[in-house]
Structures are given as structure tokens and as C-alpha cells.
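Session log. Operator J.P. requested a structure for one protein chain; no other inputs attached. Running the standard single-chain path with C-alpha cell output.
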Amino acid sequence: MKNNVLVIAPFLSTEYSNRPLFAAKVLSSIAKVDVITSDFDHHKKNKRKNLLIEGIRKIHCVPTLAYSKNVSLKRFFSHIVFSFRAAFFFLKFRNAYNAIYVTVPFNLAGFLFFVLAGNRKKIMDVVDIWPDSLPFSEEIKKKFRLFFFIWKWPFQKAVKKADFILTVSDVFLYESLRYFQKEKECAKRLYIGNDIIPCQPFRKKEFITIAYIGNLGNLSDLETLVEVLGKEEFLAKFQLYIIGDGDIRERLIKKLKKRNIPYIYFGIVYDTKELGTILGKVDLGFNGYKNTNASFSYKANTYLAANIPIINSMAGDLERIVKKRKIGLNYISEDVDSLCKVLRDINLELLTGLKKNCKKYFFEELVSSKIEKEMRSFFAEAMEINRDRGRPHDLRPLTPPGIRVRTGRF
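Structure written below.
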């Protein structure tokens, strides 16, 4: 019997390297796959139009609240609305599926789906852990500890109910195994992975170029970078490329202009060829975060796919890998002196060595073909275990009232 898998992927995106989309495509090689996602595009901040992806049988777009800022109550409630509406879909039509794959950090969605799943195979992919990886101060955590406990409680319960666990970092794997009740062999860490981004290396001789790619939000440690680049000793040595958008864009650009820091703002770039042209002129990628060990970031994944060494403040996997594999330089988050020391040590000889190490590490650990092979093997084994459990009564994919569906034939 062909397996029928439902993938729950709130942040499904075709423009960026996207873990749930990658997993859905791998699953489609061994099963028939439907996807539930939000009808609101988190990156573009607008409602989705046609969403058709080769290999995926149907994509169900669940209506939820739109929001303009990533850090807002409206976004928080949008996640809650999505979780309940998506769970309602699954409750009515769960007999169409014998396995489900859920990505978190939508903790509530993971919990609701696994409660409703019964004896169907439950695969949980931990892409982030909220609120742990968010940069709340210790004072805030202490003051609102009951709220933070309630926020994380669904994550803990979902992990306990899961049959198989994937994570994108060793930090997340360690945290998940604290609650996981199956054999450790049913849990695996797989990095996000990426295809190589083809670049034509070109560096302007008058500057060393640092790039920041991704969301311009409050998680990033860009304020520390601006403070350092604005110092007289660095003004004539470095320039900044900014690729992305977000809540702090206007404030960031205003500070760059005020400090006379050389920069170019490219906005959001979706085209891989265009991105490669830009990154070919880049010497270093900035992976600075405030007070977080949030796994192996998407932006670091992108930098390394373009053979760009990273300046990193993220604890956990990346801090260890940067030091061990010499693919960049670590600094202490929000510490101006620490970042100054890193930038003072940078020269062309060092950059040449770091780039060679990046290329080697990427092909050994991050290239998508390797991740795909390991993930397919993991999923295939999961689908074979207790194969007759959760056999659906009706394998026809169904669509409940109120759910917008985009389908296509391939």
C-alpha cells in the first residue's frame, strides 16, 4: 500500500531554502503527499495566490490572520488561528492519511495534530524551539515564567507523542530527547542543507564586504555591527550589503547613513542567479543574533552555499563548527569589543583560507543531495515500521468547507 502523508508546514515557501518544503519533496518520493500551510505568506506579508509545487498532490491553504510585523500580538494570534483551523481539517479528514509530518515552532499545531493522530505515524521536525530560542531577557523570562511555561508545554507534549523526531541542530536534538519516549534510533539531526549558489568571485579592492541576508528583525545583532562599522578604524576598510527586509529596516538604514557607513541595500532577492551575482562580491556573511542558540540558521546555510565565511554569534552547533572547521569567526553577542577584535584580525590571507574551508565543509555536510539521501532513508525506515498501523479507511484526499485549495497535475 502506498503511504499517504499529510505535511503540516505553516511557513511553506518556494523562494527560500525551506525545511518543510524540502521534507515534503523527499516524502513524495516514497509516499503520496498533501500539504497544509497558511494562506498568509510570512516573508512577503501578503495573502498567497496559486501555490503549486511539483510532486505534491494537493496544497491546502488555511485562512489565518495577516500581520505586518514579525514581533506583534497579531502574529501570535495568527499562529493560534492557523493551528486550530488546520487541526479542524485533520480532524474531519484524518482517515485519508496514515502518517503526518509536522514542523515546529508552532507548538500548539504540533500538539493538536499529534493528539488527533491516534495510531498514525507521527513525525516531528524541530526547526526551532519557542520560546527558548527567542531573545527575551532573563528579567522578562522571570517575570512571565508562567506564560513561558504555558508556551512551551505543547512542544513538550508533542515530542512525547511523536514516533520519530528530526531536528536541524544538535542543540535541538538534545532538548527534544529530554521528552522523547521512543528509542533514540528514532531521532536524528539533519542540517537544513542547500544547493550550491553559483557565484562569480569579485571583490572591490577598496573594501572588504560584509553581507547580511534575511529578516531585518529584532533577533538580529545588527545594532552591534553598525556600532562597530561606524568606528573610524573600520569606516575605510568595510562596507555592508543588506539583502532582505523586516521590521527594523528603516531604523537600520537611518543609522547607517548617520554613521556614514558604506552600504548597499538590495531589498529581498528571490532569484538565485541574481543572488549569486551579489554574493560573488561578498567576503563575509554576518550571522549575528541576540542572545540565542537557535540552531543552524538559514542565513548561515545560504552564506556557506555561496562559499562565504561567516561572522557568528550564535551559540550551539554553529559556534562549535565555526571553531572546529575554521569556516569563519565567532564573537560574543551584543559585545562591541568582541566584534571589533574579530574585524581587526581579518585580512586577505585569512579570508582565502576560510573560503577554502567553507567549500570543503559545505560539500561534506550541507549539500542538499547528501541531506536528501539521509532524509529519504530516515523516512523510508519510518514508513516501514509497523506498516499496518493507522491504515486509513479512505485514501481519497478530501477538502473541508472553508479551505482554499490549489492543485495541479504534473
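Operator note: The chain is about 40% helix and 20% strand.
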